[in-house]
Amino acid sequence: MKIRASLGSGFTEVRVLMTHPMETGLRKDADGKIVPQHFIQNLTVKLNGKTVLDAQISQAVSRNPVFSFRLNGGAKGDKIEVSWLDNHGESAAIEAAVA
Amino acid sequence: MNHLRRTLLAALAFAIARPLAALAAWNKGAFTATTPGEALKSLGVGNAAASKDLHIEAPEIAENGAVVPIEISSAIAGTNALIVMIEKNPFPLTARFDFKEGALPFVKLNVKMGETSDVRVLAEAAGKYYSATKEIKVTIGGCGG
Predict the structure, then answer these.
(1) Cβ neighbours for B124, distance < 8 A, ≥ 6 positions apart
(2) Of A7, A80, A11, nearest to B104 (Cα)?
(3) pLDDT tens digits, residue range B109-121?
(4) B119-134, pLDDT tens digit by residue?
(5) CB 3.0 to 4.6 Å from A93: which of A25, A83, B43, B62, for a disulfide?
(6) What is the three-state SS of chain A?
């Protein structure tokens, strides 16, 4: 995962990249076998420990998802945390300070 | 009796093994719906009024359906959720974003599109729903492979 949080004019832009196959369950591998569904289902964005955004996503989000979000206001040093949870129960999180 | 106990134990083990999954809400009914109408019904979305204050920035033509960049934003006061629906995908509902105090109704994301389709964005504000659509033409689909 990678994250960048920077101040815009009146908002904080958060850009986050997740490493994930986002398998749809429709794709076949080289042997012609269906590759099982494996995709992120939930995303959470926290600002200084408080949840500001919750998302539910489907397998139709592209592989290695990249999202940009905007938070109201914000100041240098504010702590942003983004976490995800997939359909296998795997999860990951990353943190950054607003620059 | 034994069978019942086994079933209960299995259910319990499942619940313990996946505590995070159990806590996080993912609207399975809506995400596995195969038509936009069914998905909206599962989401509890009623009549949506067309709105010019709901913006979709996306290419007219996407050469690669596996990565179609879409930027969505709402200028409707009090927008607390944005929903993305790719009408002709096998499972149209693609994402639902719930904005709490502190987040602006703006998201940029990449999506997969199987074929040329209308992309519908819905916004929820003060219990009412608004919608906007944009057609994106796809040269090479991005769902199968």
Answers:
(1) B45, B79, B80, B81, B82, B83
(2) A11
(3) 999 999 999 999 9
(4) 999 999 999 999 999 9
(5) A83
(6) CEEEEEECCCEEEEEEECCCCCECCCCECCCCCECCCECEEEEEEEECCEEEEEEEECCCECCCCEEEEEEECCCCCCEEEEEEEECCCCEEEEEEECC
Give the predicted TM-score (pTM) of the model. Answer: 0.88
The domain B26-140 is classified under which CATH number: 2.60.40.2470, 1.10.3720.10, 3.30.70.260, 3.30.230.10? 2.60.40.2470
Chain B environment of A28 (Cβ under 8 Å): 144-145
B42 in reach of chain A (CB within 8 A)? no
Q: How many CB atoms lie within 10 A of CB A34?
A: 12
Q: How many CB atoms lie under 10 A from the CB of residue B125?
A: 18
B window 102-141, beta carbon within 8 A of A = 102-104, 106-113
- Token pair, residue A37, equals 């569904």
Q: In 3D, which of B64, B28, B27 has the Cα closest to residue B138?
A: B64
With a cut of 90, say whether residue B12 has pLDDT above it. Answer: no
Domains and CATH numbers, chain A: 2-97 (2.60.40.10)
B22 at interface of A, judged by CB pairs closer than 8 A: no
Q: Which residue of A22, A50, A89 is in closest CB contact with B21?
A: A89
Instruction: Choose the closest CB to B26 out of A50, A56, A62.
Output: A56
Least Cα separation, residue A70 to chain B (angstroms): 5
